[in-house]
Structure formats: C-alpha cells, structure tokens
Amino acid sequence: MRHIVVSFFYFNGDVMYRYILFILLVIATINFAYSQDKRGQSSNGNDYKGVIKGQVLEIDSHKPMSYAQISVYNVGNDKLVNGTIAEKDGNFSITNLPNGKYYLMIKFIGYEKKKVNSIVISEGSPVYNLGKIELNFSTYKSEGVEVTAEKPLVEFKMDKKIVNVNRDIISQGGTAVDALQNVPSVKVDVEGNVTLRGSSNFTVFINGKPSVLTGSDALEQIHASSIENIEIITNPSAKNDPDGVAGIINIILKKDTDLGLSGVFDLSVGTRDKYSTNLLLNYQMRGFRFFGGFDYSDDTRNNQGNSQAIYYLKDSVTKDLNSKIDGKRKHSGNTFKAGFGLDLNDASSISLEGNYGGMEFARIHNLQITQSLTPANLDSFFIDNSTGTRDNSFYSLNLNYFYNFDKKGHQLSAMAFYSSSDGTGKNPQRDYISDSLWNKISMSNNNINSREDETSYDYRIKVDYTLPINEDDKFEAGYQLRSENEDDKYNLQQFIVDSNKWVNNSLFSNALTLNENIHAIYGTYGSKFGSFSFLAGLRGEYTLRKIDVPKADKIYKIDRFDIFPSLHLVQDLGQSQQITASYSRRVERPSGWDLDLFPSYMNSYTYRIGNPELGPEFTDSYELGYQKYFGASYVSLESYYRVTSDKISRVRDLDSLGMIRLTSANLNKDYTLGVELTVNYEPFKWLRLNASTSYYNYRLEGQVFGEDIAKKTDVWDANFNVTLMLSPDTRLQTNGFYSGPTITAQGNDYGRFSWNAALRQDFWNKQASLTLQVRDILGTMKREFSSKDAYLYNKFYMDFESPVVSLAFSYKLNNYQKKKEPTNKENGMGDEGY
Q1: Prediction pTM value
Q2: How far is 182 from 164, CA to CA, in rounded Å?
C-alpha cells in the first residue's frame, strides 16, 4: 500500500499539495477499516470466529447479484450485529460473529427482501454456509392489480454506474446517445455530441470490446432497444485500457437466457424524416447459443442560426463577416450482426461474433454572408452553399476462448479482435457574388471540391488470467497487443473563374500513413479485510508510433514506455451505506485527424491543419464517493479531481492570407475539481423520482501562440427524471436537463436546457408496447459559443428544430426472457419479508 501512495506523489509532484487532502482521506478510510476489524474482539479479549457466507442470485437469470446488501440481526433483541455487500460474483462472507442465534436480511433495489431464519453459530459449528440465495422482483398490489417493481434507472457499483436502458422510455426508438441524456456525469448537446464529466475524450466499448467507430459516432450507431444496460466507468482499473481521459462508456447488448428461440423487434417514426428499426433474434440449446439481427436508422435535423467573424488585419483594417445560416444535419446507418457460442466441454467454451455495417453523415449549410471592410466602408454580399458528406463502411470479428480450472473463479481467457473501416468524405462548396437582395450575380474564385479517403484496420490480441488465492484475495494479470493502422488521402479542386475550369490545388492535396503498436502488461491484486476491500493495479505500455508523410519526405516517430497505476478502495459502513475512493492514470492519444500535416479546406474562409509532432495528454484522476440506501431509494455523493498535462488544445488564428487556421498542440494544463449529487426517491409505489446535479471548477493554464492564458470557471448542470405508474401497463415519464456555460482555450461555450416527455402503453401481456414521446418541448436546446484573440473575434448561434415527436413500437418474441421457476426454499429460506 505504501508503494501505491508514493506513486501518487511521483506522478504529480508539481501539484502535490492539492492531493494531500485526498491521501489523508484514503489513510483515514484504511484506519477506519482496521478499527472496524478490531471491533470483532470481545471484552475479554477472545476473537470472534463465527462466519456466515453464501451467494446471492437473481431468481430468473441466476446471475450474481453483486452489491446486494446483507445484514445480520440478533434473534433476541433484533439488533444489527454486522453486515456487508455482496461481491461481483454474488458471494458474501460476514465474519467475527460471536456464538448465538441470528437471522439474515438481504436487500437489493427493485427486489423483494429476503429473510433467512434459524442461523446458529456455536463453537462446534462456527461456519454457516447458506449456499445460493435467490431474490425475486418485488411486487405490490393496487386495486387488485399486481405490479412488478424494476431496477432503478441508475445503479452505483464499486467502480462504475450502470444505466438500465429499459427503465428510460424516452430513449425508446432512439440510440445510445438518447439513452445517455439523463445520466449523471454525462452531457449530450443538441447535435448529439457526448461528453463525460465535461470531456469528449472517452473510450467506447461494446460488450467490453473496442468499438469500430469512436466517440459519439459509435453511440449514434447503436439502437437503444438492443441495449441491456450502459456502464459508465470514470476511473477504470489497470486491467482496462487507459485511453480516454474521462473514462469508458461500455455498451452491454441484450443476450437471451431462455432455451429455444426468442427475440425483439422495434420500429420508430418521428416528425420530419426520422426513422429507425431494429431486430434481434436468439436461439439457445444446451451447450450452443446463436444470435443474429440488424438495425437501421435515418435521422434528419433542421437548424437555423447566425455567425459573426471579425478579422483584425494589418494597418488597422478589419473585415467583418455576418452570416445567416439555414442548415440541415442528416445521419443514417445500418448494422448486421451475428455470432455463436459453443461449450467445448464442462471447462471450456468458445465464441465468435461479427458485425458489418455502414454510416452516412451529411451537414448541409446555406449561408447569406455580408462582408464589411473598415475604414473603407465597403460592403459586399455572398451566397455560400456547402454539402459536407461522409460515408463509412466497417466490419469487425471477435473470437473469444474461456477455460475454467477446477477452483471456482480460476480462469484463463483469450481474445482476438479485428476491425476494418473505409470512409470517404466530400465537401463541395459553391460561393456566389450576390446583390443586397441575395440575387446571384456570378461565381467567385472560392468554389472548391474536396475529397478525403480513409482506410483503417485495427487488431488486438489479449490474454487474461485470474487466480483466486482464497475467499478474500484475488490476483489478475494479462497481456495485450494493439495495432492501429490508417491511410489518409486528401485532394482539393478549385474553380478558376477566368478559365472556367476546375484545377487541382497541390498545396491542399496530401497523403498520410499512420502505424501505432502498443504492447501492454498489467497486474491487479484485490483483497478484503472484514468490511474493507481494495483493488490495486499497475499497467505498463510500450508505444511505437510512426507517421509517414511522403510529400514532406519525413517520418515522425514516438517511441516511449508509460506506466498506469490504479487503486480502488471500498469501506462498508453497515446500515446500507459505503464509502469508495479511487485513483487512476489516463491517456488521450491524438487521432490521425489531429496529426495530418497538410491543410484541409473547410470553407471559403477556414481550413484546418494537423500537427504530426503532437504527443499524448496524460490525466491523473481521483474520486471519492459515498452511497446510502433507504429501501428502494438512495443518495449518492461523489467528488472528483483531475489534472491533465500536455493537454491537446484546439486553437485558431489568422494566416498570412487572412484565412482562419485551425490546428492542435500540446499547449496547456487543466484542473477539474467537481462534486456530483444523485438522489433516487420512491415516495409511493406509483411514483419514482431521480435527480442529479453536479458542480465543478475548471481551471486552464498555458500559452496559446506565445500568449499566456489563465482561465477558470464554475460549471454546474442538473437533470431530473419523473416516472408515474398510471397502471401496470401504462406509464408516463418526463425528464429535463440543464448544462451550464463553460470555457475553452480561446472562448466560451454557453449553457442550454431541454425538457422531454413520453407515454408508454404495454399490451398483449407485455409482449408489445407503444411509446409516444416529445423532445425539447419548450424549444430551448440552442447552441452558442464565442471566441476572441488578437487576430479574430468569432460568435456562433444555432437554433435546432423543436419539438420532435416520435412513435415507437416494440414486440418481444417469447417475451425475451427466461420463464420463472419455483422459488428455492432450501436452507430454511422462505419467501417472507417485512
């Protein structure tokens, strides 16, 4: 433990004083754990040796009920003696119990309480093994109708939050982006861009494996109805990839547990050209599993806005561009997926999964531009029409092998993953000189045709080994090879009015090849001491990156080794409450887009250029949390602190020709200190309230083009979710969220608010449902930002179409779940609760 604490100071010596509070809290937590452990001694000094253990499972799926709450009471006076929380595999062990008679209470949100009677601890029988204990969904009756309770919208685990997508009827017919709109730590803007605790630098996994697409693009491709739940992992352990400063969003897709054939079909239609459909079929017989399906979506969003750009030129000359924008954003995609799993024998199994699909994206802008030059007082008018499109086809294959040794939990797994993607981006722009009434006069020399072709393929080989040393200690280790390869080609044609023809512009035509190989090894060790547990890990990565730019006749190379420690601590306080603390080191590696040496023409006034010398940015992330459960309700308070060095900053300036140049550089260092409060409250069986609010202080330090910057701001956001159970088959849900303003390296991003509502009606014994939903009811989801430096002032405002109304239909084949079996009453367990 001392070595891990030392590593905190080793990586962050320049801001050591800011971490002293965190370290003291960790030390206090450890000391509290040992003091709790010492309470197990009787007054005469004899150690208590009694133990009660078992495993908590869900009655339908037989899946482990990790983090179920177990409490031990004295039969004579009903006093709480001790308690704990079930581990990830559902196992629990309550130690240091004196001789006596006890009963056990097991609780989990959305499930019936389970009471286990007649437990006797004596010198002759100090260990009482309850075996498997199964929990059933809780039910209540209202006016003669039985209603089954459900899991909460958001569950809090030791190292992650779990979003139960089926609880959010507003996301029905939408994508994973829609499902994330009302989740703590996550913000979604009007264009579907997702940020995790204020950062867009997160990694997307699907069933624990890397997505072919990245960021918001990957989330837009996944239909909400095919998602079982979404894991938000803000401080991953050393076992996981360290990529993504903000953490990992892991999409867990639905898998059927019933024998035979089952499936789900969804269809959604929305106002102004919004369509989606999804089909997923599963077939399972003993020892063999197969699934297949597809999804399709086509979404068009209209927008209007305006922008202003003031260029500060030489000799006190300014050029002022005021633009009126009429735009449209189209996103469509489809994915076909299939796979199978086969049990080779009692100890080993193999599975193969594949995905194939495509994505098309278009951003259409029609601009009316008024250009003013001062002090000449000269005005001119232009019409600019641009249609930026991007189409992408992709596929992936994933092969998994598992081997279980004789000892429970002793496992070896191997994975081979391959993905390929081909994409083409086109951006034809037509610029016309017009009069003040916007009548076209002639074409200008600013007309272009640009095209970018990108081909990439990635593969991974991974081996993981898990060794349970005893009931409380576990060791894990593994190796992973990641290889990412990308080829980019960019070509630009420019229209010459005088010769009335298109010519290639060699300045803006280029090619780039990127190869990056990462070898990683890791080890983690977890242990438990009474009510205190920890998981410590260390990961080492060797990175070799080469960028070949033939036109520059140069190869840019990075050759380095980095280590990434992690630490997770949990202190069970009893009475359904716990404290968690964690630390991890993260990395954000630049993409090929950031590294491209040659410029890409965006419009008549703007281009972007990459930086092949760009290096990774590193973040040290700390978290401290507290959770308290009150039956079906809970309160969670989390604080976090992040420090990012060598921050990759997007900046803009004016070049010698007076054009806006966008680029990236490792310029700055930022600090984020925040707190999140989440409350889930169910005052009545028919009413559920979920609300969260977060506040963080963001500070940015560094230089932009030689000028010192020191900015800071306070940012807060909030969201709420209200569900009314109007009947067992009818529910009404409404939610809203507010995202506060924040700062960037050169400007400000303003706040936004949205309010949504949905009504769902189930029928045919819950095998089918209809959901009517309305998004952005008040039309308040706007986007507005501004920036200013010595060369340029820029302000942008966009208003998006609202409200958006949609109707979604869902049908489940064989109810898409396993049939219930009689309750297991062995070991004296009954169905009674209180």
Answers
A1: 0.70
A2: 12
